[in-house]
Protein backbone atom coordinates (compact mmCIF):
# COMPACT_ATOMS: atom_id res chain seq x y z
CA UNK A 1 0.00 0.00 0.00
CA UNK A 2 1.39 3.40 -0.98
CA UNK A 3 2.23 5.72 1.91
CA UNK A 4 0.52 9.12 1.94
CA UNK A 5 2.75 11.83 3.43
CA UNK A 6 1.08 15.23 3.69
CA UNK A 7 2.85 18.46 4.53
CA UNK A 8 1.69 18.03 8.14
CA UNK A 9 3.07 14.47 8.18
CA UNK A 10 6.53 15.59 7.04
CA UNK A 11 6.74 18.82 9.06
CA UNK A 12 9.58 18.56 11.52
CA UNK A 13 10.86 15.22 10.21
CA UNK A 14 13.89 16.80 8.59
CA UNK A 15 15.66 20.11 9.19
CA UNK A 16 17.20 22.07 6.31
CA UNK A 17 20.60 20.98 7.64
CA UNK A 18 19.48 17.35 7.60
CA UNK A 19 18.16 17.77 4.08
CA UNK A 20 21.48 19.36 3.08
CA UNK A 21 23.24 16.30 4.51
CA UNK A 22 21.02 14.09 2.33
CA UNK A 23 21.98 16.10 -0.76
CA UNK A 24 25.66 15.90 0.09
CA UNK A 25 25.30 12.17 0.64
CA UNK A 26 23.97 11.40 -2.82
CA UNK A 27 26.69 13.55 -4.39
CA UNK A 28 29.38 11.72 -2.43
CA UNK A 29 27.78 8.43 -3.50
CA UNK A 30 28.54 9.35 -7.10
CA UNK A 31 25.38 10.96 -8.48
CA UNK A 32 26.28 13.26 -11.39
CA UNK A 33 23.84 16.20 -11.68
CA UNK A 34 25.09 16.83 -15.23
CA UNK A 35 23.26 13.66 -16.31
CA UNK A 36 20.00 14.49 -14.52
CA UNK A 37 16.92 14.56 -16.81
CA UNK A 38 15.75 18.00 -17.87
CA UNK A 39 12.77 19.67 -16.29
CA UNK A 40 9.76 19.68 -18.61
CA UNK A 41 7.72 22.88 -18.45
CA UNK A 42 4.25 23.14 -19.99
CA UNK A 43 2.39 26.48 -20.13
CA UNK A 44 -1.23 26.20 -18.95
CA UNK A 45 -3.93 28.85 -18.40
CA UNK A 46 -3.20 29.07 -14.67
CA UNK A 47 0.57 29.30 -15.05
CA UNK A 48 3.01 26.47 -15.64
CA UNK A 49 3.17 22.71 -15.04
CA UNK A 50 6.58 21.23 -14.28
CA UNK A 51 7.54 17.56 -14.59
CA UNK A 52 10.76 16.57 -12.82
CA UNK A 53 11.86 12.88 -12.89
CA UNK A 54 15.01 11.40 -11.36
CA UNK A 55 16.53 8.07 -10.32
CA UNK A 56 19.44 7.27 -8.03
CA UNK A 57 20.42 4.16 -6.10
CA UNK A 58 17.45 2.25 -4.70
CA UNK A 59 14.85 4.89 -5.53
CA UNK A 60 13.25 6.81 -8.38
CA UNK A 61 10.66 9.53 -8.34
CA UNK A 62 8.89 12.32 -10.15
CA UNK A 63 7.55 15.68 -9.03
CA UNK A 64 4.57 17.24 -10.75
CA UNK A 65 4.49 20.88 -9.70
CA UNK A 66 2.26 23.78 -10.58
CA UNK A 67 3.45 27.39 -10.57
CA UNK A 68 0.37 29.61 -10.39
CA UNK A 69 1.28 33.32 -10.07
CA UNK A 70 -2.36 34.33 -9.66
CA UNK A 71 -2.82 32.21 -6.55
CA UNK A 72 -1.46 34.96 -4.31
CA UNK A 73 -4.56 37.08 -4.96
CA UNK A 74 -6.72 34.11 -3.92
CA UNK A 75 -4.82 33.48 -0.72
CA UNK A 76 -3.46 30.21 -2.12
CA UNK A 77 0.14 28.94 -2.42
CA UNK A 78 2.02 29.91 -5.58
CA UNK A 79 3.65 26.45 -5.75
CA UNK A 80 1.45 23.34 -5.77
CA UNK A 81 2.01 19.71 -6.63
CA UNK A 82 2.82 16.17 -5.57
CA UNK A 83 5.85 13.90 -5.47
CA UNK A 84 5.59 10.20 -6.34
CA UNK A 85 8.42 8.15 -4.82
CA UNK A 86 9.14 4.79 -6.46
CA UNK A 87 11.20 1.71 -5.70
CA UNK A 88 14.19 2.00 -8.04
CA UNK A 89 14.53 -1.59 -9.32
CA UNK A 90 10.79 -2.27 -9.82
CA UNK A 91 9.36 1.27 -10.18
CA UNK A 92 6.65 0.25 -7.73
CA UNK A 93 5.04 3.31 -6.07
CA UNK A 94 6.10 3.71 -2.44
CA UNK A 95 4.84 7.08 -1.30
CA UNK A 96 3.00 10.20 -2.38
CA UNK A 97 4.39 13.36 -0.77
CA UNK A 98 3.13 16.93 -0.72
CA UNK A 99 5.09 18.58 -3.53
CA UNK A 100 4.88 22.12 -2.19
CA UNK A 101 6.15 21.06 1.24
CA UNK A 102 8.97 19.12 -0.41
CA UNK A 103 9.99 22.14 -2.51
CA UNK A 104 9.82 24.41 0.55
CA UNK A 105 12.36 22.15 2.27
CA UNK A 106 14.53 21.17 -0.69
CA UNK A 107 15.33 24.66 -1.97
CA UNK A 108 16.68 26.04 1.34
CA UNK A 109 18.60 22.77 1.80
CA UNK A 110 20.40 23.30 -1.53
CA UNK A 111 21.27 26.84 -0.47
CA UNK A 112 22.40 25.60 2.94
CA UNK A 113 24.77 23.11 1.32
CA UNK A 114 26.26 25.85 -0.86
CA UNK A 115 26.63 28.21 2.12
CA UNK A 116 28.30 25.42 4.08
CA UNK A 117 31.19 25.66 1.61
CA UNK A 118 31.09 29.31 0.51
CA UNK A 119 30.20 31.48 3.52
CA UNK A 120 32.86 32.60 6.05
CA UNK A 121 33.10 30.71 9.34
CA UNK A 122 35.30 33.04 11.34
CA UNK A 123 32.69 35.54 12.55
CA UNK A 124 28.93 36.18 12.91
CA UNK A 125 27.52 37.13 9.52
CA UNK A 126 25.30 40.01 8.42
CA UNK A 127 22.43 38.65 6.31
CA UNK A 128 20.34 40.57 3.79
CA UNK A 129 17.25 38.60 2.78
CA UNK A 130 15.22 39.57 -0.28
CA UNK A 131 11.64 38.29 -0.18
CA UNK A 132 9.09 37.57 2.55
CA UNK A 133 7.33 34.43 1.30
CA UNK A 134 7.67 30.77 2.34
CA UNK A 135 11.11 30.43 0.77
CA UNK A 136 12.40 33.43 2.72
CA UNK A 137 11.31 31.81 6.00
CA UNK A 138 12.85 28.50 4.97
CA UNK A 139 16.10 30.14 3.97
CA UNK A 140 16.32 32.06 7.23
CA UNK A 141 16.10 28.76 9.11
CA UNK A 142 18.62 27.15 6.76
CA UNK A 143 21.29 29.84 7.08
CA UNK A 144 20.86 29.96 10.87
CA UNK A 145 21.70 26.26 10.99
CA UNK A 146 24.92 26.79 9.03
CA UNK A 147 26.31 30.06 10.39
CA UNK A 148 25.96 32.39 13.36
CA UNK A 149 24.15 35.57 12.32
CA UNK A 150 25.05 39.06 13.49
CA UNK A 151 21.80 40.46 12.14
CA UNK A 152 19.10 40.13 9.49
CA UNK A 153 17.86 42.81 7.10
CA UNK A 154 14.66 42.01 5.20
CA UNK A 155 13.99 43.68 1.84
CA UNK A 156 10.56 43.00 0.33
CA UNK A 157 7.99 44.74 -1.84
CA UNK A 158 5.17 44.22 0.67
CA UNK A 159 5.92 46.19 3.87
CA UNK A 160 3.47 44.20 6.00
CA UNK A 161 4.96 40.85 4.98
CA UNK A 162 8.46 42.24 5.52
CA UNK A 163 7.54 43.32 9.07
CA UNK A 164 6.06 39.87 9.79
CA UNK A 165 9.32 38.21 8.74
CA UNK A 166 11.30 40.68 10.86
CA UNK A 167 9.08 39.83 13.85
CA UNK A 168 9.65 36.12 13.18
CA UNK A 169 13.42 36.64 13.08
CA UNK A 170 13.31 38.60 16.34
CA UNK A 171 11.29 35.80 17.96
CA UNK A 172 14.19 33.50 17.04
CA UNK A 173 16.52 35.76 19.00
CA UNK A 174 18.01 37.56 16.00
CA UNK A 175 18.59 41.28 15.58
CA UNK A 176 16.37 42.10 12.60
CA UNK A 177 14.98 45.09 10.70
CA UNK A 178 13.57 46.01 7.32
CA UNK A 179 15.89 47.66 4.82
CA UNK A 180 16.56 48.68 1.24
CA UNK A 181 18.52 47.14 -1.64
CA UNK A 182 21.49 49.36 -0.78
CA UNK A 183 21.97 47.33 2.42
CA UNK A 184 23.78 44.67 0.39
CA UNK A 185 26.87 46.87 0.75
CA UNK A 186 27.26 45.70 4.36
CA UNK A 187 26.19 42.08 3.90
CA UNK A 188 28.25 38.94 4.34
CA UNK A 189 25.42 36.83 2.88
CA UNK A 190 22.67 37.93 0.48
CA UNK A 191 19.75 35.56 -0.11
CA UNK A 192 17.42 36.22 -3.06
CA UNK A 193 14.13 34.36 -2.61
CA UNK A 194 11.74 36.30 -4.84
CA UNK A 195 9.65 36.08 -7.97
CA UNK A 196 11.46 39.09 -9.46
CA UNK A 197 12.28 39.03 -13.16
CA UNK A 198 14.76 41.92 -13.07
CA UNK A 199 17.75 42.55 -10.76
CA UNK A 200 17.00 43.30 -7.13
CA UNK A 201 20.11 45.39 -6.34
CA UNK A 202 23.24 46.99 -7.76
CA UNK A 203 25.86 44.24 -7.90
CA UNK A 204 28.67 46.78 -7.66
CA UNK A 205 27.71 47.33 -4.00
CA UNK A 206 28.40 43.74 -2.89
CA UNK A 207 31.78 43.57 -1.20
CA UNK A 208 34.54 41.04 -1.96
CA UNK A 209 34.15 37.84 0.02
CA UNK A 210 30.39 38.18 0.40
CA UNK A 211 28.22 35.26 -0.72
CA UNK A 212 25.07 35.80 -2.80
CA UNK A 213 22.55 32.98 -3.24
CA UNK A 214 19.85 33.40 -5.90
CA UNK A 215 17.04 30.82 -6.01
CA UNK A 216 13.97 32.61 -7.34
CA UNK A 217 14.08 31.88 -11.07
CA UNK A 218 14.59 28.98 -13.47
CA UNK A 219 13.74 30.89 -16.63
CA UNK A 220 16.29 32.10 -19.22
CA UNK A 221 14.72 35.58 -19.40
CA UNK A 222 14.37 36.22 -15.65
CA UNK A 223 17.02 37.06 -13.06
CA UNK A 224 17.45 38.40 -9.54
CA UNK A 225 21.09 39.50 -9.89
CA UNK A 226 22.64 41.92 -12.37
CA UNK A 227 25.45 41.65 -14.88
CA UNK A 228 27.85 43.63 -12.69
CA UNK A 229 27.60 41.08 -9.88
CA UNK A 230 27.93 38.05 -12.17
CA UNK A 231 30.96 39.51 -13.92
CA UNK A 232 32.72 40.19 -10.57
CA UNK A 233 31.86 36.89 -8.91
CA UNK A 234 33.19 33.37 -8.60
CA UNK A 235 30.04 31.58 -9.81
CA UNK A 236 28.86 28.19 -8.56
CA UNK A 237 25.82 26.25 -9.82
CA UNK A 238 24.09 22.89 -9.29
CA UNK A 239 24.93 21.75 -12.81
CA UNK A 240 26.61 23.54 -15.68
CA UNK A 241 24.16 22.06 -18.18
CA UNK A 242 21.09 23.09 -16.18
CA UNK A 243 22.43 26.58 -15.48
CA UNK A 244 23.29 27.23 -19.13
CA UNK A 245 19.80 26.05 -20.07
CA UNK A 246 17.69 27.84 -17.45
CA UNK A 247 19.58 30.43 -15.38
CA UNK A 248 18.73 33.90 -16.67
CA UNK A 249 21.14 35.32 -14.08
CA UNK A 250 23.94 33.85 -16.23
CA UNK A 251 22.35 33.64 -19.68
CA UNK A 252 21.45 37.33 -19.88
CA UNK A 253 25.02 38.54 -19.09
CA UNK A 254 26.34 35.99 -21.59
CA UNK A 255 23.95 37.29 -24.27
CA UNK A 256 25.19 40.81 -23.49
CA UNK A 257 28.77 39.66 -24.09
CA UNK A 258 29.76 40.44 -20.50
CA UNK A 259 30.81 36.86 -19.68
CA UNK A 260 31.66 33.73 -21.64
CA UNK A 261 30.31 30.18 -21.27
CA UNK A 262 33.38 29.29 -19.19
CA UNK A 263 32.62 31.87 -16.49
CA UNK A 264 31.23 29.24 -14.09
CA UNK A 265 33.83 28.46 -11.42
CA UNK A 266 32.38 25.19 -10.17
CA UNK A 267 29.36 23.15 -9.15
CA UNK A 268 27.78 21.99 -5.93
CA UNK A 269 29.33 18.57 -6.52
CA UNK A 270 32.75 20.22 -6.91
CA UNK A 271 32.30 21.99 -3.58
CA UNK A 272 31.20 18.84 -1.76
CA UNK A 273 34.11 16.86 -3.20
CA UNK A 274 36.62 19.65 -2.52
CA UNK A 275 37.56 19.90 -6.20
CA UNK A 276 36.74 23.62 -6.55
CA UNK A 277 36.78 25.13 -3.06
CA UNK A 278 35.84 28.74 -2.48
CA UNK A 279 38.80 31.11 -3.01
CA UNK A 280 40.83 31.48 0.18
CA UNK A 281 41.42 35.21 -0.34
CA UNK A 282 38.60 36.27 -2.63
CA UNK A 283 39.02 39.24 -4.92
CA UNK A 284 35.29 39.42 -5.54
CA UNK A 285 31.94 38.06 -4.29
CA UNK A 286 30.82 34.45 -4.52
CA UNK A 287 27.53 33.76 -6.32
CA UNK A 288 25.57 30.52 -6.06
CA UNK A 289 22.80 30.36 -8.64
CA UNK A 290 20.21 27.62 -8.14
CA UNK A 291 17.52 26.63 -10.63
CA UNK A 292 16.22 23.60 -8.70
CA UNK A 293 16.79 20.07 -10.00
CA UNK A 294 14.96 16.75 -9.86
CA UNK A 295 17.81 14.86 -8.16
CA UNK A 296 17.49 17.22 -5.21
CA UNK A 297 13.77 16.48 -4.85
CA UNK A 298 14.51 12.76 -4.95
CA UNK A 299 17.25 12.94 -2.31
CA UNK A 300 15.08 14.92 0.10
CA UNK A 301 11.97 12.81 -0.60
CA UNK A 302 13.92 9.64 0.23
CA UNK A 303 15.21 11.22 3.44
CA UNK A 304 11.67 12.20 4.45
CA UNK A 305 10.33 8.74 3.55
CA UNK A 306 12.98 7.11 5.72
CA UNK A 307 12.55 9.61 8.57
CA UNK A 308 8.82 8.85 8.58
CA UNK A 309 9.67 5.22 9.29
CA UNK A 310 8.29 4.03 5.98
CA UNK A 311 9.60 0.86 4.38
CA UNK A 312 10.39 -0.03 0.77
CA UNK A 313 8.67 -3.37 1.38
CA UNK A 314 5.35 -1.64 2.14
Strand order of the largest sheet: 9-8-7-10-11-14-12-13
**What is the quaternary state of this protein?**
single chain
Count of distinct strands: 14
Count up the helices. 10
Low-confidence stretches: none
CATH structural architecture of the largest domain: 3-Layer(aba) Sandwich
Question: Any key phrases for this structure?
Answer:
six-stranded mixed sheet, eight-stranded parallel sheet, 10 helices, alpha/beta, Rossmann fold, ornithine cyclodeaminase, domain 1, 314 residues, single chain, 2 domains, 33% helix
Can you put this structure into words, describing what you see?
An eight-stranded parallel sheet has the order 9-8-7-10-11-14-12-13. The protein folds into two domains: 3-103 and 295-307, ornithine cyclodeaminase, domain 1 (2-Layer Sandwich); 108-293, NAD(P)-binding Rossmann-like Domain (Rossmann fold, 3-Layer(aba) Sandwich). The model has no long low-confidence stretch (mean pLDDT 93). The protein has helices at residues 7-10, 16-28, 99-118, 134-146, 159-171, 227-232, 240-246, 248-255, 268-273, 294-307; strands at residues 3-5, 40-44, 47-56, 59-67, 79-87, 93-98, 125-130, 149-155, 176-178, 189-192, 211-214, 234-237, 264-267, 286-289. Strand 3 (47-56) and strand 4 (59-67) form a beta hairpin. The chain contains ten helices and 14 strands. The radius of gyration is 19 Å and the shape is globular. Helix 2 (16-28) crosses helix 3 (99-118), helix 2 packs across helix 10 (294-307) and helix 3 (99-118) packs across helix 10. 49% of the residues are buried. The protein has 314 residues and is of the alpha/beta class.
Amino acid sequence: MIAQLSGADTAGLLTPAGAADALAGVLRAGLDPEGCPQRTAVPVPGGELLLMPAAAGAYAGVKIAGVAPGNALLGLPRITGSYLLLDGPTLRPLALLDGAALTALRTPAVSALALRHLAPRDRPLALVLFGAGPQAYGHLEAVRAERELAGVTVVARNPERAERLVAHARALGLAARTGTPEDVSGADVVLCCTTARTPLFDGRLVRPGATVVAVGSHEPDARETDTALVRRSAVYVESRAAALREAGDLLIPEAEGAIGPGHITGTLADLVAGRRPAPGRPSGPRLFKSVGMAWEDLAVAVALFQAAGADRAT
